[in-house]
Amino acid sequence: MQEQAIDVLIVGGGPAGLAAALAIGCHRHNVTLFDNESPRITSTSSFTGINMLPAWSSAHTKNYILEARRDIRDHYPTVTLVDATIVKAEKVWAGDIMVTNSDGKCWVGKKLVIATGYEDMLPDIPGYKEAWGKSIFHNLAYQGREAPRVGLLADNPAEIGLYHAKCAAQLANRVTIYTNGDDKLQKLFIGDLLQVQRYCHKFFFDNRRIISLQTDAGDTTLAKDIRIQLEDDTIVTEAFLVHTPQLKVKDTLKFSEDIHLELARDFNAKAGDSAARAPHYQTVDRGIFVAGDLVTRYKHMASAISSGCNVGISASIQLLQEKYEDWPHF
């Protein structure tokens, strides 16, 4: 363990964590950022565009992360990047926070930024995992492309699926909503789409159970189409499928009982979103912040970077308030 507390500890080296490190490093505070290289969008995925990030819309997320890390290493000497999996965070003396990695090594900091994000819970459909990111897309802003017909794999909550169905209709002449044998889900969609059909007649339903998904994509290449095998052995071919898997908060990091991460009370609460709110994204514990997908309703990189920047500035403000014994504003 180091002799003196580090100014800020950041757990999670995705866009939000890197933005926070940059904002704090600009003010020459000491920062240690921990990352175990397990992004939600992996390097084997074929998601190529970075959604709504100017100048990077045709680049891969992995390349953005590598360039951001290089820039921080080259220009911000007070920021240290550590390859480690942090498994525990707890309060210690004088209000400091101690984090421990999987090897038992400890670091102590004055502030803590949590930017660990989510992981996707892929459905248990044979062939889904192999097609994910190649012919199944969770966001058409990443891989939207015009096609004669596309499919939407319906899932709860229905309102999200309905939104993606409308987005798909912007690109295709026919959108088939596959409810995978779920009669209740089909009724939910039908009720909502009755009003939509007044403006658009592109939507169709298929309630048959899905047996498997097949695609000819390589390890890192997009597929030309996806073949859906249904329960009666019929095979339907779509240009691609749209589906947003359920999200799960990464549970590698455990918190002591004296650290309180209240969950949001909105429709995202079941996904585990933090109740920390803009602009500071501070939890009920002063000096502990949350950034990235854990605090943004829309899980886009631009939103993650924005929250990370806010958190970095907020942590820096608190450090300066404490250094000069100013009355704390938050």
Automatic annotation (TrEMBL):
Molecular function GO labels: oxidoreductase activity
What superkingdom does the record give?
A: Eukaryota
Keyword annotations:
Flavoprotein, Oxidoreductase
Q: What positions does the domain FAD/NAD(P)-binding occupy?
A: 7-135
Which GO terms are recorded in the biological process aspect for this UniProt protein? cellular response to toxic substance
- SUPFAM superfamilies per UniProt: FAD/NAD(P)-binding domain
One of this protein's Pfam families, by short name? Pyr_redox_2
PANTHER family assigned? THIOREDOXIN REDUCTASE 1-RELATED-RELATED
Tell me its family: Belongs to the class-II pyridine nucleotide-disulfide oxidoreductase family.
Output this protein's name: Thioredoxin reductase glit-like protein
Q: Give the organism the record lists.
A: Aspergillus ellipticus CBS 707.79
Biological classification of the source:
Eukaryota, Fungi, Dikarya, Ascomycota, Pezizomycotina
